[in-house]
Amino acid sequence: MSTTDGQAAEAKYDYKADEDMRTDVWDENLHVGYWSGPEDTSAVEVATDQLTDFVIARTRIAAGQRLLDVGCGLGKPARRAAERTGCGVVGISDDPAQVKRATEAAEGAGAANQVRFLHADAMEPLPFGADEFDAAWAIESLVHMPDREKAFRNIAAVLKPGATLVATDFFENVPLGGDRKEAVDAFLSVASLGPIPRLDDYPALLRSTGFELVEFLDITENTHRTYALLLQSLYDTEKELRADHGDAVFDGFVKAFKGCAESLVPRYMLFVARRSAGS
């Protein structure tokens, strides 16, 4: 049994407040998985780490340097970066519950001396000094920010000249219509996401905020398996999810992920930018 549209609106899933549903159906890494190709059959928890590793490689952070993790989630990527590279990491989130959980996980992993988490919002000036970080990343967090331009300016303000920013983001390469637009709209609704930018807008956006675009990769083909696996995970735990979150939430998620799995939208990118020396 499903609810009416009116009931669905009232029961809208609070995406940011409920980490448990996301981790139950996916992974502690709150981002898509990365598969090298059709022959890669990695499980979800491996594939999400593979995306983190893909970002780490392009961040080029090293031991003794400092990395800013913008939108740190539950802190698993930050811990992995510290372990793999020896760098120090500061993760920020605008959700105090995420900061608490990330801090507890770092302490449990014995990484508290190398990784720390703070409550901060990239929509506001960040609580750090100028030129404080050697690199920054934003793994699937920009889409939760209502103003990317403001976020980029605030990030640039705390990076050293020449420092690297690596980010993953959803994007549109052509105007969407019909079933493709419906799929993306459903996805944005259940995931409480902001607007998805046009690809053509990105280079100028970065230039205007103190960055130079170094590399752009469309990795949709490597990440899109995420939606089919999310859909299967929903079906596998349907009884429990309906009981815990209601029919409206469950049906909304199924509609969103089914539409995305069938239409190859939204597209997913990784970009590397460098803070301009004169900015």
Concise synopsis of the structure shown:
The chain is of the alpha/beta class. 44% of the residues lie in helices and 19% in strands. Helix 10 packs antiparallel against helix 12 and helix 11 (238-245) crosses helix 12.
Structure description:
The chain starts with a helix and ends with a strand. The protein has a single domain, classed as Rossmann fold (3-Layer(aba) Sandwich), CATH 3.40.50. The chain is of the alpha/beta class. The protein has helices at residues 5-10, 19-25, 44-59, 76-85, 96-108, 148-156, 178-191, 202-208, 220-223, 225-236, 238-245, 247-263, and strands at residues 66-70, 88-93, 115-119, 133-139, 159-171, 211-218, 267-275. Residues 1-13 have low confidence and may be disordered. Helix 11 (238-245) crosses helix 12. The chain has a seven-stranded mixed sheet with strand order 3-2-1-4-5-7-6, with helices on both faces. Helix 6 (148-156) links the parallel strand 4 (133-139) and strand 5. The protein contains twelve helices and seven strands.
